[in-house]
Amino acid sequence: MKAGFHSAASEEIVETTAYYEGEVPGLGDRFIAEIERIVEVLCDQPHIGQSVGEELRRIILARFPYSLIYSIESERIWVIAVAHHRRRPGYWQERIDR
């Protein structure tokens, strides 16, 4: 299985990586590495995340206060958000194709 990212989720990764890198050199790289690790796990075990709604799941990143919000499609994992645990809960729901 492969993974894809909603354009807004990709922007969240870029913005968060830049923030962490500005705080501590190298921390942005660790954030990216954690996202890559989680995506690899999801591609092997897509149902591992907690259900949030009918078609979405959430998996929590280690060492960072973020979760990946994703759906499982026939041939890919579709990440719709890289959501901070304490900021604007549920904001990503507007990204769901209905």
Précis, in short:
The protein has 98 residues and is an alpha+beta fold. It is built from 2 helices and 5 strands.
CATH superfamily: RelE-like
Name the strands of the widest sheet in spatial order. Answer: 1-5-4-3-2
Termini Cα gap: 23 Å
pLDDT averaged over residues: 92
Ranges where pLDDT stays below 50 over 5 or more residues in a row are: none
* Strand segment count: 5
* CA-based gyration radius: 13 Å
Overall 3D geometry?
globular
Q: β content, as a range?
A: 25-35%
**CATH fold-level name:** YaeB-like fold
> Major beta sheet, specifics?
5 strands, mixed
CATH class: Alpha Beta
Provide the helix percentage.
25-40%
The CATH architecture can be named as: 2-Layer Sandwich
Domain module tally: 1
- Helix/strand-derived class? alpha+beta
